[in-house]
Design a protein that fits this description.
This protein is α+β, with helices and mostly antiparallel strands. It has one domain (about 25-320): Oxidoreductase, molybdopterin-binding domain (Sulfite Oxidase, Chain A, domain 2), CATH 3.90.420.10. It has nine helices and 13 strands.
């Protein structure tokens, strides 16, 4: 007899919301360049509103992660965002609406058998979507829990067919100074870039995000396509991706390029290694006035710690 064992980051069946509480999702996904393609996958656009409680989406391959604490309300997360292209404050949601995501195209290049471009609709037709609830820990020591919609990064890699010599995957965000006024600031190394090892990118937890809270991704969240690596600090989760490059050279990310002594390539959550200017031992959930302890790898160590075995000076490398 064969038993199927679910990863322990999937939420237990008895924690899934009762079917009678599901919201009515009548409209097709639209307005973010993910129209008919995503609609064919069963996604809806009218899901949980910021005022309504989140409920799991019907019709999806839903992997619900037991985050250990409740989902942070959309009314909070949609108004507290880091997206430096639109400003250095957290209140950039209105400014981010200037970004047009219609007809969004992602370029795949570098060490691949055949470079190509793919529209977001076609990408989702090829990868499918599922729903995962992940913890998010910012290097600034605040945290939240978000129900993301997307697909494993490994599916993107399978689609790209990288050469055997590719060691890293590099992501690049859009560059448009007419839309994103902060990109006119010359002391920032635009466009935003981030990268991961192929081992990290193919880990089960690595996730490409196209939606949240049961609907299409808000622009301030990084629509229409962003990364979420739940065991890493949030600045590694690059937003509004336009280019994916496979390479044998380690990418230098935006913040590493800007302040290498404070923001490094690995950027794994580690409460024992402080940021040069503040402690990482605790964090403040956005929906709480108090603080809670921070856990190594943001609590996902069982699934990712093996990626860093054998490294010298492990504590430092987890940070830098």
């Amino acid at each position: 007899m064969i038993y199927h064992r679910k990863p322990n980051w999937m939420i237990k069946e008895n924690l899934v919301t009762d079917e009678t509480l599901l919201l009515n999702r009548r409209k097709l996904l639209a307005g973010m360049g993910i129209g008919a393609g995503a609609a064919a996958l069963g996604l809806g656009a009218e899901a949980a509103t910021p005022e309504a409680p989140f409920t799991p989406m019907p019709g999806l391959n839903s992997n619900f992660e037991d985050a250990g604490r409740g989902i942070t309300a959309e009314s909070i997360t949609s108004k507290y965002n880091n997206f430096y292209e639109f400003g250095s404050s957290k209140r950039i949601a209105a400014e981010a609406q200037k970004l047009s995501t219609d007809d969004w195209v992602v370029e795949i290049d570098g060490m691949v058998n055949k470079p190509f471009q793919i529209g977001i609709e076609d990408l989702l037709k090829r990868t499918g979507v599922e729903e995962r609830i992940y913890r998010h820990r910012c290097v600034e020591a605040w945290s939240m829990v978000v129900p993301w919609i997307g697909f494993p990064m490994a599916k993107l890699i399978d689609l790209a067919q990288p050469m055997s010599g590719a060691k890293y995957i590099r992501f690049e965000t859009f560059m448009d100074t007419k839309v994103a006024k902060e990109q006119k600031v010359r002391w920032y190394p635009w466009p935003y870039v981030e990268g991961f090892t192929m081992a990290e990118a193919t880990n089960d937890l690595a996730f490409m995000v196209v939606g949240a809270y049961g609907k299409v991704l808000h622009k301030q969240f990084g629509a229409p396509l962003r990364v979420h690596m739940p065991w890493k600090f949030g600045f590694k989760s690059i937003k509004s991706i336009v280019k994916v490059t496979f390479t044998d050279e380690r990418p230098v990310g935006f913040w590493e390029n800007l302040i290498a002594l404070e923001y490094g390539f690995w950027a794994n959550v580690n409460p024992a290694v402080d940021h040069p200017r503040w402690s990482q031992a605790t964090e403040k959930p956005l929906d709480s006035d108090g603080r809670i302890p921070t856990h190594i790898f943001n609590g996902y160590g069982e699934h990712v710690a093996h990626l860093y075995e054998g490294m010298d000076d492990l504590g430092d490398r987890l940070w830098r």
